[in-house]
Amino acid sequence: MNFQSELQEKTKEAEEIICRYLPKEEGFAAHLAEAMNYSVCSGGKRLRPILLGETFRLFSGSGHVAEPFMAAIEMIHTHSLVHDDLPALDNDDYRRGRLTTHKVYGEAMGVLSGVALLNYAYETMLKAFALTERPQAVIRAMEIMTHNTGLYGMLGGQSVDVENDGNPVSREILDYIYENKTSALIQASMLTGAVLAGADERELAVIDQAAKNIGLAFQIRDDILDVTSSQEELGKPVHSDEKNNKTTYVTLMGISKASERVADLSGEAVALLDSLGRKNEFLDTLVRELVGRRK
Description:
By secondary structure, the chain is mainly alpha-helical. It is 71% helix and 1% strand. A two-stranded antiparallel sheet has the order 1-2. It comes from Blautia ammoniilytica.
């Protein structure tokens, strides 16, 4: 398997699915739709839709029922980025190598487009009912998505991050932030793929832990890149954690030990996936590649 070539193909596939579900830029709210589409179409790794689709394949899922969820998870993720970049939060000017949504469309439209993306994600998920004869699986998948996005997931983690902005935090609080702000959406992606493909409760528990490890590894690697990468390479400002006096795994344990933690987490995630007795070579390689990514 040529991983990079296959990754490009999977990314292209995810892009096509996402674009298929984007709102049309028409009517009196066309400017809002344009701002929504600007942020979603600004590139990115499409990691969450790819993980969802590959977990669906891991459990021999067939048909198109996963596609609305692939588009929706990217909308949810993008909504969080649009709001992260706002002046009230991180106040960043660049994301994925170009101006952030609020810098192009203004702060008010940045707020509105983020909220609209979150709402439109749920509208998009509902379209899965027409693509399956197993409506209960769609309901379960939506329960996972909504739970992991809200108070007990991404937004809960974001709130604790904001409340502690600029203040030193303990490892316990940092783990809470990472497990919710970042891991929760990766868990939602992989659990949704598994549920839609018919995985049983034991298999879902394994996927949940593997995805939690992947999310933590991904965020810690982000901490490392903020220190070691460049703005050209990363597509967004570097050293922002230091500028904002943020506690990260790098500030707590240094680059070397943080890198070891990433390797341990990703290794455990692959071992968990292997324990299922199923094989998706691309998914295993993707998890391992997160350790050494440069952007």
